[in-house]
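# step 3/5: fold
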Amino acid sequence: MGKQKEKKNTGNSQRKNAAMFESEDDNSSVSSSSTVRSDRVSVLGNEEMQIDKDSLLDQALDALFEKRGSTREKALRSIREAFNNNLQHEFVEKKFATLLHQCLNSFKRGSAQEISLACRVIGLLALTVGQGDNAHEILEDSVPPLTQALKSGSESSKISLLECLAVITFVGGNDPEQTERSMQIMWQVVHPKLGSNVVAVKPSAAVITAMVSSWSFLLTTIEGWKLNPKDWQESISYLSSLLDKDDRSVRIAAGEALALIFEIGSLEKFSIEAKGSSDGSTQDGSRPREFVQIQGLKAKIINQVRNLSAEAGGKGSAKKDLNSQRNLFRDILDFFENGYCPESSMKIGGEPLQTSTWYQLIQLNFLKHFLGGGFVKHMQENEFLHDVFGFTPKKKYLVDNEHRLSSGEKRMYRSPNSVVNKARTQLLNKQRMLSEGKNIGHYAVNMGDEEA
């Protein structure tokens, strides 16, 4: 009897909370309801403001149980904004699993827009929890529905699905095998394994760009020698073919990926491996066929990069985009020929965030793109990202922010056994320290330096 009463009350609460999001479908009620909330927040103290924010998040989470798609979409937008603008540690501690599985349910029953919103929320959830058991759970629970959605989803939703898979693997992948699994899933989007009843669908330029960028983002976390050499060579050949495509974003994404591959020295490593694993032809001093092929492909790529660094503007070519491409490929050419990586620096709360390697550049641009307007906030407060980039915010900010943290958040930051502190050690082991730190590329083409 007690359980029935509790279930009834929960149902009433969910219906009441969902009604708030449904009412926003009516334009006439939007301004009045938002004004009421604004007035309410303006007269509350800090503690009460936090309670109000938590209440709105609870209401949004309840609305994800509703049948009406537009209601779920509005709720996901609300959650996305909340996670973008603040690190919701206390909410995540209590509602982590419920939020994850409601977002995953959107993959099965939602529109392309709802799927895209759910992908963004799942990625933000992973970035909020940082490395640890929860991030690993997000990855393992999400991979099956993500894989299925990538096979059946629309072109627009595939882009969000690829980026979501990249972020949750970047945070939650515990070993190279898990990361390579996600990279293979991404690869299948443009190179599907065809069965007797499967028809190949040519991916759009936008999907190819998203796949290559997401794949490269994950490649930054793996030592090149741990990947299958045969798969690696096929990847290089495919990326080389993309440099000849008409779409500029595809060419830029492929160029970045190839720069990363050259940076981690995989061409040379595979050449050495090929010598030692041949059928014995190397014993007389001759070079195996694999070595010759790789060197030939390397020369071809350098020539392609040289041409793109000096490409003349074509019909309808935007000058800004053309200059961005030229600048990028000049940097890639300089790296291929002289070993110099492009350097970059941006200010976060007055502190410089610098990069000087291709892998850091790719990580930074991908996360800037994914977080959008929430990037600066996360860089200031998210210790997982501090560890990724070796970035330390100003002490003044940390002291001021300490007073704004809830008791739960303070525990998470201070405890030596916290997920955040464990993440620091794990991530430092995971990150490959090739040189020092850098920043240009596909996602940075239209972005300038940001100041908090």
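# step 4/5: annotate
The chain has three domains: 15-174, 203-314, 344-430.
# step 5/5: archive (pending)
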